[in-house]
């Protein structure tokens, strides 16, 4: 039946080229998209016939460019995937809707490589249903159909197919029998770079040169990197007082090109009793998470394209659809509940070094309405709670590590080696120094942080009170486990009395740049925010609300931390790459503050201990305590770290209950006794 639907769809798409009933400008659009679908049909057949295994690397590269060509920056200004161009070409009424429709057709690219005919059929039938609406409207009345007619076609497509799409997505996330990417990682010849083109992801210079670089490294070097990655994961369970032996599955997330490390990591995880699930980052309306990439992925062909379509659901998202998604999500988890029960959590390998991306706010890109933003927040809260119900937060953990890519510059090899060094610093040395800082902070009622050199930060952060300081502590001594590299102490601060301004001259959060980001807190909650990315205050506020607050009206300060990895700071200065480092490393390079949930989200009741045996008691704040009466008010399902760099820091002082101020950092240098060793790397950059 699926094959028959496929063939009927392709026959109808072929006919569109010859038909003249639909008039311009829509005729041009439909013929253009039909041509793309024919290209996808050819791609599907080429892969089915095994051409990926026999083509030369030059042919594979040519094919790869051709299927992504329309959204590459040099072509994007005249692509129907560009909402501004689509509106200009098709008019305000249909432009954004048709830009989304074409974008959903482009989701067929990965499905061709995975040979998923069902995914092909439902999208081709959607396109044809929209086309036929225009065809018959023009045939009967010589004008386009009403907008609501076409919008309803798309709405019901999303509604009707949410169930099979959700079932498949959750199966990919939980069930190790879904092996498309795992088979590429484990069963191909990684010295033959043609393997990069088996995924269907866009392949750029970065992926090719990364794979080449890793192929040149010794087995010992690869083993060392894989061990750091997987051992951090294991230690996360130990330090979190969680039983890894109950688990059977680990979700591995990485960027294409790092397969040699990932393959060894799979072997390491196998020794822990864990099988991998490796699923693709979302590419369709059913699987995308804004412009975030969660899963494995290749190069991003055009970040502006991704940004333009991060809120396409604004075209149809309503309460009915939200409730349906929640209903089918539960059904999907029920179907995979046995795998969910033994899911250990994600092990993430991130990359850094790409040219910083400063998005353009497109006038015609879809934007969630205020009501839709509220629904989006509700959906995130309820779906997050559901995930925690099936994959219990108190039983799972994670780890994150990052490596540079060749785009970082001519000194890539040296920076890569430096990153390996940073990721493998002696955590025992840091644990001792950081304990000295914690012993001081445990005496404090609050901490003050003030900026300098044009930085307007002026914050007072309230700390939890210790009842038994011989057995309890406020700050976690973070060694190289879940967040690699080593180098921070952190806490969940008290909200009441936490007041002031956090200001950073330039920062990158979730791959987006913010200039002069300023956030005001009152009793630990955000009351105001601004930046200087765009010309108008309204654009700047919208940018922050969408991408930092994630549509919430406010967020609490969920974490206060002091980064101690001055070696990473030195490397950033030496190679002038501070603007390219991921938050994973950047957060270790100065005090940082997270807005959103705490680091102990959904597992506040699990006792956590520092290496010295003391229990970390600051796992809750006034918001998370609401979980005991109304969980929907306790969590925000986001956590964004914002780092104040050492060179913008005038002072960080712990203030005791009797008013004594104990300096920890002054003018960007550690001044607390016992922390002198942290200042040594600064001397290397003078």
Compact overview of the structure:
This protein has 686 residues and is α+β, with helices and mostly antiparallel strands. The protein folds into three domains: 2-145, no CATH class; 180-395, no CATH class; 425-506 and 556-683, no CATH class. Helices cover 43% and strands 17% of the residues.
Tell me about this structure.
- The chain is of the alpha+beta class.
- It folds into three domains: 2-145, no CATH class; 180-395, no CATH class; 425-506 and 556-683, no CATH class.
- Helix content is 43%, strand content 17%.
- It has an eight-stranded antiparallel sheet with strand order 12-11-10-6-5-17-18-19, covered by helices on one side. The chain has a five-stranded antiparallel sheet with strand order 8-9-13-14-16, with helices on one face. A four-stranded parallel sheet has the order 2-1-3-4.
- The longest helix has 28 residues, at 147-174.
- The protein is globular.
- The model has no long low-confidence stretch (mean pLDDT 95).
């Amino acid at each position: 039946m699926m094959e028959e639907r496929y063939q009927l769809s392709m026959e109808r798409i072929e006919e569109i080229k010859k038909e003249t009933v639909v008039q311009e400008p829509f005729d041009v659009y439909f013929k253009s998209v039909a041509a793309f679908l024919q290209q996808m049909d050819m791609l599907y057949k080429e892969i089915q016939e095994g051409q990926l295994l026999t083509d030369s690397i030059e042919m594979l590269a040519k094919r790869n460019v051709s299927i992504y060509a329309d959204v590459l920056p040099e072509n994007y200004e005249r692509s129907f995937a560009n909402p501004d161009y689509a509106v200009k070409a098709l008019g305000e009424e249909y432009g954004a809707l048709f830009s989304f429709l074409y974008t959903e057709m482009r989701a067929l690219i990965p499905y061709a490589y995975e040979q998923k005919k069902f995914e092909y059929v439902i999208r081709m039938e959607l396109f044809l249903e929209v086309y036929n609406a225009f065809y018959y409207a023009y045939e009967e009345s010589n004008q386009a159909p009403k907008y609501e007619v076409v919008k309803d076609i798309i709405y019901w497509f999303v509604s009707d197919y949410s169930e099979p799409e959700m079932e498949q997505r959750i199966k990919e996330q939980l069930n190790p029998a879904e092996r498309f990417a795992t088979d590429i990682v484990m069963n191909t010849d990684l010295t033959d770079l043609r393997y990069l083109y088996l995924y269907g992801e866009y392949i750029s210079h970065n992926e090719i040169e990364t794979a080449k670089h890793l192929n040149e490294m010794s087995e010992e070097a690869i083993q060392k990197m894989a061990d750091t990655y997987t051992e951090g994961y294991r230690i996360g369970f130990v330090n979190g007082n969680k039983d890894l032996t109950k688990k059977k599955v680990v979700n591995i997330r990485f960027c294409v090109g790092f397969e040699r490390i990932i393959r060894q990591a799979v072997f390491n995880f196998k020794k822990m009793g864990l099988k991998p699930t490796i699923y693709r980052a979302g590419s369709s309306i059913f699987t995308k998470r804004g412009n975030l990439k969660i899963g494995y992925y290749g190069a991003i062909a055009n970040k502006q394209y991704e940004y333009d379509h991060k809120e396409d659901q604004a075209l149809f998202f309503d309460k009915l659809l939200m409730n349906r998604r929640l209903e089918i999500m539960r059904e999907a988890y029920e179907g995979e509940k046995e795998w969910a029960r033994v899911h250990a959590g994600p092990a993430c390998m991130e990359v850094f070094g790409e040219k910083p991306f400063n998005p353009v706010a497109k006038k015609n890109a879809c934007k969630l309405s205020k009501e839709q933003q509220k629904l989006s927040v509700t959906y995130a809260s309820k779906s997050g709670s559901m995930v925690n119900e099936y994959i219990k937060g108190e039983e799972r953990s994670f780890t994150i590590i990052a490596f540079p890519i060749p785009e970082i510059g001519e000194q890539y090899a040296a920076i890569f080696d430096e990153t390996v060094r940073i990721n493998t610093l002696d955590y025992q040395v840091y644990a001792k120094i950081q304990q000295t800082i914690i012993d001081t902070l445990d005496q404090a009622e609050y901490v003050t942080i003030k900026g300098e050199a044009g930085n307007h930060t002026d914050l007072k952060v309230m700390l939890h009170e210790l009842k038994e300081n011989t057995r309890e502590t406020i700050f976690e001594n973070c060694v190289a486990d879940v967040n690699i590299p080593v180098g921070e102490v952190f806490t969940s601060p008290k909200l009441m009395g936490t007041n002031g301004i956090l200001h950073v001259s330039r920062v990158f959060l979730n791959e987006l740049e913010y200039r002069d980001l300023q956030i005001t807190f009152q009793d630990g909650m955000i009351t105001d925010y601004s930046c200087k990315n765009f010309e108008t205050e309204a654009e700047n506020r919208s940018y922050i609300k969408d991408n930092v607050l994630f549509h919430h009206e406010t967020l609490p300060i969920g974490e206060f931390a002091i980064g101690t990895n001055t070696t990473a700071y030195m490397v950033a200065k030496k190679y002038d790459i501070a603007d390219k480092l991921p938050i994973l490393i950047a957060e270790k390079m100065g005090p940082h503050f997270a807005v959103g949930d705490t680091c102990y989200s959904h597992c506040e009741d699990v006792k956590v201990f520092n290496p010295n045996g003391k229990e970390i008691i600051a796992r809750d704040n006034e918001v998370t305590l609401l979980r005991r009466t109304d969980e929907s008010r306790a969590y925000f399902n986001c956590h964004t770290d914002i780092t104040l760099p050492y060179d913008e820091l005038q002072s960080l002082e712990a203030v005791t209950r009797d008013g004594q101020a104990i300096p920890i950092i002054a003018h960007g240098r550690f001044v607390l006794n016992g922390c002198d060793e942290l200042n040594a790397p600064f001397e290397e950059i003078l």
